[in-house]
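Hi V.,

You were right to ask for the full record rather than a summary. Here it is.
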Amino acid sequence: MSGRNLAIISISILVIPLSALAQPPSPRPPIVIASDSEFTLENGVVRGSGTPNDPYIIAGWEIDAGSGTGIVIRGVGAYVIVEDCWIQGGPKGTGVSVSLAPNVIVRRCRFENLGTGVFIYQSPGVVMEGNEFIDCWTGIDGNQSGGLQIRGNEFHRAKKRGVFLWRARASVVEGNKFWGCGAGIYLDSCNQFTVKGNFLKECGWGIYLWDSHSGSVTLNALVGCARGIGLYHTSAYNYLYHNSFVDCALPAFDDSSGENRWFAPYPQGGNFWGIELQDNMAGPDQREKGSDGIGDEPVKIPETGVDRYPLVSPPPGMPQFDEGGEG
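Predicted structure:
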């Protein structure tokens, strides 16, 4: 891989520790809110009235979840923001559990050494933004919750999965960073999803789709992963293009019988595979003399995929990562 190409995939990483916040978190016991009447000061609510324009704010707490759950929000219709909290615990603990509560945002929180950082159940539209997950078994586990928005989070050494979504239709996983996870992003039975602009380094699987359909996987950078992107068990009619693979032992695998599209229409092109390609021809059929930034021959993807327009260099718009990343 040339230095020029590596430079294109390199980015600076900004992590704001909780100690740098205006006020450090204050220790308190776990929080359980199971009705709209329980949004009180005693339950950690610092302000707000629960409306869209004035949501309840649960903020600034340090909680040891142990083997239980740090914050439970269940069966409420109020608008809620959980922010600037630090939750840690044991391998059976959960940081935040959101169930039957569709109007919840969790942002700028840190989750450490937990079984699950955030668990979401039947809560469509929950937003996860700017959080940090460290040494958790699973970072975010979303079940039967459509329209989840998972943006700008960081996942460090998730033992099983950074993000796991099951039956989470039309969800978005965008602009997140994953280091050393068993699997970075794992979607099971998800449709019409978007996985875009994520950085995944040294993961077992970067992005794994199981029985997931009609989604888009674009502008993701996969570096040093044992396996890059995998499509299994009827995952079909997905569009996967403008991704970059660098030093991945198995960049991609697709068992869908050719029903996924690994390239965009000419001249947009397909993916950058981190390999040297000849570029002496141009045109939709690569039969015209000239260079167009697309390899002259398709790249085959085991078992059944093919990238008709492989890129000779990473596409514009890739996340910009510092190659040093995490130590």
